[in-house]
Model the fold of this input.
Amino acid sequence: MSIKVRNISKKFTSYNFFNKQVNEVLNEVNFNLLDNDILGLIGPNGSGKTTLLKIILNLIEPDHGSVLIANRSKKYLAYINSNSRSFFWRLSPRDNLTFYGKLLDLSSQEINYSISKLSEDFYVQDILDLPFMKLSSGQMQIFNIIRALMREPSYIFLDEPTTSLDLEKSSNLLNILKSYISDRKIPAIWCSHNLDEIDSVCTRFAIFNNKRLKLLDKNQFMKIKNQSNHYCFEIEKSDLKKINKDFEIVNELENTLIISLSNHKYTINELIDFFIKKNIELISIDNKKNMKGFKFDEFFK
Done:
C-alpha cells in the first residue's frame, strides 16, 4: 500500500469585525492510493480537492486524521499546480530550474541532465534562455511541470496541470505525462475539471462533494462524464418549429440558431438520432463540458 489517508478532517476559521466564521472543507476522508494508481479526483470548485493534496504534502495540517506513507523522509513528493508566480520572472527558465534543482539537493551534473532531458521531452529546449516573463502562460505551465520532475518523484500530485494550454498542447502534454507516470509506475493523484482528461489518463476514480470523498468504479465515472456533456447545436431557423423537446436558444445568427437541449439524460447518439428523425440538418455541434448542477449526492447515499 503506497499511501493511506485516514479520517482526514479540516476546518478553516476566518474573522471579520462582527463574528467568527468556520468553514468545514473535509469531513472524515478515507482512501488508499495503491501502487501504480493514477487516481482521478473530480468535483466542483471548493469541494476540498486542493486542500486534500496539500494535507498529503504536509503543506497544511489536518484537524483530525493522518496520512501514512512508509519511509516518508526518503520519498520525494512532486506537486504540480497551475501557479507560475513562484518563478523568478526576470530570470530564464534554465536559471529558475537550476535554482530549484539546488533546493532538491541535486548535483550540478544531475541538474544539467534533468534540464536537458526534460526540456527535450516537453519540446521547450528552444526557449530555455528567454526571460521567464516573456513566455506565454502555456509555456510557463510546462516549466511548472518540468520543475516538479527535476528529481524523479516517488509520488506525483497534479492539480489542474493543463491549465492555460490550448487543445493541441494539452493533448501532447497529457500523452507525455501519462507515459512518464506509467513507465515509471509512479502512484499519482490527478485533479481536474476536464473529465476527458481524467478518463484518458487515470486508472481509478473518486469524487469530492460536500466535504466527503467517494471512490467510483468506471461505470459510475462514465455516468458522470456523460451527464456533464452539454451539447449545443446549430440549426436553420426554419427548423426550430420541428423541435418538441425543452430547449434554450444560446445564440441567434443571421440565418441559423445555436440551441441547447435539456440533454443530460441523453447520449450524443440519441440526440443526433432525434434530429435525423425530425429531418433537421445539423450545421455544427459544440460540446461544452459542464459539471454545474450535476446531482453528486446520489453517489453518497
Notes: The radius of gyration is 23 Å. The chain has a mean pLDDT of 88. The longest helix spans residues 167-184.
